[in-house]
Amino acid sequence: HPNLAAWVWTSDTLSKLGLDTVFDLLRIHFAARDAHFTAKPAIADALEIAFSTIGYMTVSEMQLNACRLDAVCPVPKAGDLRKATKDDLDTLHGFSKAFYTDAFGYVPEMEKAMKQVDTWVEEGATYVLEKDGRILSCITAESDIYSSAMIIKQVYTRKEERNQGAAAYMVAEICRPAVQQGRHVILYTDKSNPASNAAYKKAGFHVVGSVTEKKMKKEWNV
Question: What pTM was estimated for this model as a whole?
Answer without folding.
Answer: 0.81
